[in-house]
Model the fold of this input.
Amino acid sequence: MVLTDCSILLVDDEKQILEINDRLLSENGFKNILRASNGKEADEIMGKNQVDLVVLDIMMPDISGLSLYEQWTKRGLNIPVIFLSARDEETSRLKGLGLGADDYVTKPYTPEELLLRIKAVLRRTYHLTENKIVNLGAVRVDLSSGIVIRPDGEAELTAKEFQLFSKLYDNQGKIVSLNVLMDTLWPDGSYGLENSLIVHVRRLREKIEEDPSSPEYLQTVRGLGYRLNIRGRK
Done:
């Protein structure tokens, strides 16, 4: 099992926060996401589902997250929990429970911070690794081996193609400038014309795109650079 196979329960009485955190996990490959808007719903979900981690707001109208956590502990439910803490006194109580820094996030927090904490707790608890497979429709790119798996067979990325894809994947959804990509492929500044980069982009598209002449995932942003959109053309 890899990180993104884990089942995560999000518990918060604020609908907007639930939706933001749900979208954050979905966009980062997590497939098994459960949601509860209060303690009662969360307790029912815990009783009916296999849950690997809970992101639990402390301040809820029916029961506090800390009280709910203590109930689960007494019932022998040894599930890792990341608390969302809004006040200093809540943080003090969390530390009093012997929880580490990865076990709570103080509001306001950035989505990236929460994602890092979730991954850290899953790695620590279950000794998991991140999925090295990137899905692009019917095509899969294995980052651990540099192999592209297509319906019609497999293709191996060259060193330059792998560097190019990795740089774009690390910045997925964002524009990566031509200069940054050329510096990535030729860090010693030995590259010549922009045409050299264009050739590598074309060859990479031939391996990862169903129709390289009309790319869905590796997109050109005219005059700026390239963008890898793993969710496809918008």
Q: What stands out?
A: The first strand starts at residue 7 and ends at 11. The CA atoms of residues 92 and 160 lie 50 Å apart. The chain has a mean pLDDT of 88.
